[in-house]
Design brief:
Elements lengths: L4 E5 L3 H13 L3 E5 L2 H10 L3 E7 L8 H11 L4 E6 L13 E5 L4 H12 L1
Parallel strand pairs: 1-2, 1-3, 3-4, 4-5
Length: 119
């Protein structure tokens, strides 16, 4: 069976590597992007991404919140998990079905959140 594919979007290299490692150890397939632009390019080229886990505060043409809304509009079936250590997102600003984890997140909480979306 092919593992469920999760795209991790995080501009901080060590934080991204940690999330990738946690999810991979939990049995998920993982892809990585260092920016929203890289994430959009991956989403446009692949049809097998099921969940996107994105940081909100990122440099570039759009932050993670705008990325999440763009994904919800263009790829509605993809599940979304957003994270930030610098801000809380109000429920009305979150994309439909989006979940929020505040940084630093508990590794088990990240895995459990992604696992809950996989069902």
């Amino acid at each position: 069976m092919v593992p469920l594919l999760v795209l991790v979007v995080e501009d901080e290299f060590l934080v991204r590597m940690n999330a990738l490692s946690l999810l991979e150890e939990a049995g998920f397939g993982v892809l990585e992007a260092g920016s929203a632009d890289d994430a959009i390019a991956l989403l446009e080229s692949r049809k097998d991404i099921r969940i996107v886990f994105t940081d909100i505060n990122m440099p570039g043409s759009m932050d993670g919140l705008r990325l999440a809304h763009a994904i919800r509009n263009r790829w509605p079936p993809i599940e979304l998990v957003l994270t930030s250590g610098q801000m809380r997102v109000r429920n009305e600003d979150m994309p439909e079905r989006g979940l929020f984890l505040s940084k630093p997140y508990d590794p088990a909480e990240l895995v459990e959140t992604v696992r809950s979306l996989a069902n």
